[in-house]
Structure prediction request, 519 residues.
Amino acid sequence: MYCSRNKIPYYFTHLFAGSRRSVRKALANNGLSPCASTDASGLRRWGGLRPTFRPYSSDYRGEEPTESYAGGYKSPSTIVKDEFKRYFQSGFDEPEVIPKETDIVIIGGGALGMSAAYWLKQRNPEGFTVTLIERDPTYTRAATVLSVGGIRQQFSLEENIRMSLFSAEFFRNIKEHLSVLDLDPPDIQFNHQGYLFLATDQGAKVMQENHRTQTSLGADVDLLSKNMLKAKFPWLNTDDLSLGSYGVKNEGWFDPWLYLVALKTKAASLGAKYIKGNVVGFTKEDIVANTGTTFLKRERLKHVHVKTDDGKVHPIQFAMCLNCGGPWSRDVARLSGIGVGEDALRFELPVEPRKRFVYVFHCPNGPGLETPMLIDTSGVYVRREGLGGNYICGASPPSSFGEPSASDLDVDYKFFEEFIWPKLAHRIPAFENLKLLSAWAGYYDYNYFDQNLIIGNHPYHRNFFMATGCSGHGIQHSPAIGRALMEYMTDDGYKTIDLTRMGFDRILDDAPLLEREIV
Prediction:
């Protein structure tokens, strides 16, 4: 990869193409405002572990930077200087080298792992090293690229709604966040079509309660009566409906693969390193932790063992480890002793792979461009795919069908014929006549405790962090989750969105945090 002297990179021309105000707006999210030293707070969190990276230092003089919702301010000149420096030092063409040590190691290169790598390096590109381990760079079985890429604000929990609002802003301004020198700006094909949830008389009250929570937090969602639904969507069968909830803004879908590539490219330009390998274990060391009132002898994770394609196992020493293993994050946690030990270690990470099917069909007389992401009362979803009369659909299987085996990615076409198609035809009569074109299967990182994100560090292994268990919402919340991880790991707490309730402690306390709007 190179930059021609006779060719001015896109990012550089974009930088100076407008007024000073537009330049600042375009670059506002490429840096963060100064924060308290990570060193002092780190001693509190890690029980004596002193990481090797330097605290974030200010690049402004004398005035407080202006914070924006999806990032903070760093001067344009500093951004350009740093970007060019890293551009020529990036070493994209160098052979893969397994480092012996790194400040932060991330396990899992899906949307959550890549987002965390991006936000950590965006925070301070030169301050600490970030190494990401992914066993399958082709992502043939990855939950991220096999998802349908939806985003919505229509949740019942405040944390989920706030994460959606943050992520939607990030996606809308993705060119400002993830552009890289001399490369075309990223385009994730964000389609702002909205979600449409439907409710019968039985579910209307819950929908109204959720709507009040959503709008109080700034979500632009409309409640539609039965008559309003029929007027806006004349192709919809409303006979058994009482209410609808439609996302007017910040909802729709995007291309998961294009988003993942944009994240990876940007994080690499900021200095993140990637390794192809499989995590096969950890080594620990004994430490004495100061709890404030007494000293306790305990273990701390020190090395992660990575097996590469040549069969060699490489130990990598780290200060912090982040588990973003998605559907297989419980397996990673077990390697560290979580779920197989005593006391706090006897509680396992309640995440497992759940297989879900996505079906593609053609219907020339369907609702076409007017089709939102429709969530039926039966749990079946459908949306258009492209402009040629194609649609995609799916559903979580009801108990009568049972959970499909997650040992492979085989598709159950009987599930479409016996469950999904009848529900589709009932809700949208035009779908009585359709042609099934293709299908694929993907995985949820299913949290069987409460189907919600588990984020933060483990109460015993204080330098072992996690972000998993989103149960189908990971990719849409990944910008917010990555930002939250960066804050939690470097600031000793959440700054932008408080996700304290989503920590591992609720597993210990047997206090599930339930979301009523699960698809």
User: Anything to note?
Assistant: The CA atoms of residues 198 and 244 lie 5 Å apart. DSSP finds 14 helices and 18 strands in the chain.
